[in-house]
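Go through this chain.

——
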Amino acid sequence: MANNGLDEVNVIDVGAMKVVREFQSGEAPMIPALTRDGRHLLVSNCDSCDVHVYEALNCGLIARIEVEKGAAGIALAPDGRRAFVANEFADSVSIIDLESLRVITTVKVGEGPCVAEITNNGRFCLTSNEVSHNPPLIDTETYEVSHTGEILLAPIGICVAPDDREVFVADYLSNKIAVLDAGSWSVKDMIETGTRHVGMAITKDGRHVYVSNADSDTVTVIDAGTRKPIAGIRCGESPVYIAMRPDGRQAAVTNAGANSVTIIDTAAMKPLKNIEVGISPLGITYG
């Protein structure tokens, strides 16, 4: 988990429900991402405009990769070969080769990309253009960019259904979540719930979508089929990013205003514990 206010990363033991290790990151760390083989941890650093690569086992730094201004969201391709890094203040996405640990290319995508997600088939990388309101699609083979159109006021959170048929995009400035058809990339539905949405995650079976509500200190659980909210889960102050455990049994939510992480039992849809961490926790991932 990235502690944006301390320039460090925390390691949480979810069995013991406590922080068991801290190590230094770059300046203003944003999002951590663990490679599919579990060997390496990537962390984007907004102010130092780079990505740090660590050995996941011992947290030793093995590479510092320069990207562009405002390095934020990271998405890893399913084949394990590349990472896509959203550079929020440069209006671009940098593509990193994970073998050579070098930037292959950087593409312009629109204004304010801050989150990155890749479809499960690896075909497209999506980012959320918070300023230009038109989430772009990057073809992961050609790196050509197209856009979905202006769908929300300030899109940030994105999650992709396990079958790749739908994409959910949450808006920070309204109470809406857009549901995109991943065949036509057009809006097929709008869900109204909560306010100040930042992070999103979807359960392994695709039945439930979790979205943070930074204003109300809650996470809303949405039935992906009916599009209806079915639970509101109390977290700490200003919940932002959400990570889903690979087996789907837990979700972890960073609370930027409370300096804590809430662990949620996804079957019961209830919080298990709030874990104290550093200052201004943002991105989080399970290992």
Summary: The chain has one domain: 2-276. The mean pLDDT is 95.
